[in-house]
Amino acid sequence: MYEALIRFLRQFISEKAAQIGALTTELERLIEYKSAWANFKRSAEGTDGMFSYLNKHWIA
Question: Is residue 18 part of a domain?
Fold first, then answer.
């Protein structure tokens, strides 16, 4: 599961970076980056909670 998550994140981040880089103005890039970072941070916190639960109840 860990390896699949790593592959997904690498591809997602690469695509998001290309999408942000294609924007025409610095302001557009900054706004999109801020939004993407907030979403990424929220998702990372949820993923951390999920893996913590799995480690506590199923693996350890």
Answer: no
Predicted TM-score of the model (pTM) = 0.77
Q: What is the rounded distance in angstroms from the CA atom of residue 49 to the CA atom of residue 59? A: 14
What are the per-10-residue average pLDDT scores of the chain (60 residues)? Answer: 92 96 97 97 95 89
How many angstroms separate the CA atoms of 28 and 45, rounded?
26
Q: Is residue 40 part of a domain?
A: yes
Per-residue tokens: 37: 């970072």
Cβ atoms of 36 and 20 within 8 Å: the answer is yes
Range of the domain at 37: 25-60
| Phi, psi of 8, deg, nearest 5 | -60, -45
